[in-house]
Amino acid sequence: MSAAAPDRGARAAGPREAPPPLVVPPLFRYLLRLGDLALVLGQRLGEWVGHAPVLEEDLGLANIALDLIGQARLLLAYAGEVEGRGRGEDDLAFSRQHAEYLNPTLAEQPNGDFGETIVRQVMLDAFQLELYERLASSRDEHLAAIAAKAVKETRYHLRYSSSWLVRLGDGTAESHARVQAALERLWPYTVELGVEDELDRDMAERGIAPRLADVRTAWSKRIDEILAEATLERPRDRPYTWFGKRGEHSEHLGYMLAEMQYLQRAYPGAQW
Amino acid sequence: MVSAAAEAGAAAEVRAAEVGAAADARIATAWQALARLEDPELPPLTLVELGIVRFLKVRADGVLEAGISPTYTGCPATDYIRQLVEGALAEARIGPFKVSQVLAPAWSSDWITPAGRAKLESLSVVPPERSASAALAGGTAAVRCPRCGSGDTELTSQFGSTPCKALHRCRSCLEPFECFKCI
Fold first, then answer.
1. Are B102 and B117 within one domain?
2. Chain-wide mean pLDDT for chain B?
3. pLDDT tens string A205-251
4. Which contiguous run of DSSP H or E holds residue B57?
5. Which of A21, A252, B37, B67 could make a disulfide contact with B54, Cβ separation 3.0–4.6 Å?
6. Chain A residues near residue B168 by CB distance under 8 angstroms
């Protein structure tokens, strides 16, 4: 007791390092939105591996998943750097809770049948394409470089998904009815893609990101063209209450993360 | 005074030239070491022929920096390629070095060298079209079958056995084949 007392006193009196600031940089949150979209969608597509209707589509979906996870790695690694607390891409992917994920809710929706996966993919490929094209001239050089790289891959993704949507929509009565139903089910989630909040406005004002309204307009036009060719009817916008990009998710994300994060939760830091 | 300063200046120039020559020699040795590295998925194509090794330079702090670019962001070979480059540079004994990832400008299939294109053909993989940007904007031109030379071919899948290749089939000889994608 008596020996410990002076030590305690000395420690209290000595210079103390200030705790690291807990301010979360807005750019960190914005990068999470982009990175989580890529990661969650990539993980969902990965669920098709070994289950796709034919080998070519198995390869196609797996390749797109791989590109998306590659984009997520770059975006999350950069997010970790911006945050400055020593978290890397793996920490961010495997050690965050579901409410800390900032992907749009559409990305986490279950695969459904092949047609439903394709509908989700067209909506998000077109969104990523419009976004990345504009982010390629971001004032943030590193983000611009990632976007310029990703935009090339995303063009291939949209070419794949939109050509399938046209084949299914303009196919048999059965395939048409199924993708139209999938479109009705998923459409409400697309509203979120164009809803601008304070973070989006802040990023746009600083020249880091485009104005989301511009992305939304271009997205909408592109989707109309694809739907017309696929002989599908665009559903009407309806009110929508989840906001994944603010961390308010549907119940599906938790189940997905439970599977995706299991190994790192059970054996933290495991590598192979 | 003037001559002393001139002498000092001349000596500094000689030293700079020596440093420059030493740096050039290191860079040349490093290029030789890297020229032997084959792509893990497309041997005997080398990383240099694929345009993955972007630059070698000696920085002011004496570290030799090698810039490499991923072909696709998710290509599983990216980490392995980095290890190959680090291993080759360590073995070449060119002094301190660092391997960095170069994202901008993004890698393009246009950068595959003529020797690399010839090797792709020898593997029966159709080389990418000459202008990736034109191909990306306007879709794919007719692809010739690498086996029978027929132009009557079809795309069966935009995605093949690796991220960089697409699957095609020849309608004349009915053989499937791969084509390097334009990006």
1. no
2. 87
3. 999 999 999 999 999 999 999 999 999 999 999 887 889 999 999 99
4. strand B53-58
5. B67
6. none
CA-nearest residue to A148 within chain B is B106
- Residue B183 pLDDT > 60: yes
ipTM score of the complex? 0.80
Its domain, for residue B103, covers 4-107
- Domain extent, residue A132, equals 25-234+241-266
Measured in angstroms, the CA of A131 and the nearest CA of chain B are apart by 17
Which pLDDT band, with edges at 50, 70 and 90, does B162 fall under? confident
Query: Sheet of B176-180: strands edge to edge?
Result: B125-126, B176-180, B165-170, B153-157
The answer to whether residues B34 and B103 belong to one domain is yes
Q: Indicate if B83 and B145 belong to the same structural domain.
A: no
pLDDT band at A160 (very low <50, low <70, confident <90, very high): very high
Cβ–Cβ below 8 Å for A160 and B156: no
| Residues 212-271 in A contacting B (C-alpha not used; CB under 8 Å) | none
The CATH number covering residue A149 comes to 1.20.1260.10
Give the count of domains, chain B: 2
Q: Which helix (H) or strand (E) holds B170?
A: strand B165-170
A71 vs B contacts (CB less than 8 Å): 73-74
List pLDDT tens digits, range B78-118.
Answer: 889 999 999 999 999 999 999 999 998 999 999 999 999 99
Size of the A and B interface in Cβ pairs below 8 Å: 74
| Option in B75, B156, B183 nearest A70 (CB) | B75
B163:A56 CB<8 A: no
On whether the CB atoms of residues A75 and A138 are closer than 8 A, the answer is: no
The partner residues of A50 in beta bridges, in order of sequence, read none
| Domain closes at, from B62, B85, B107 | B107
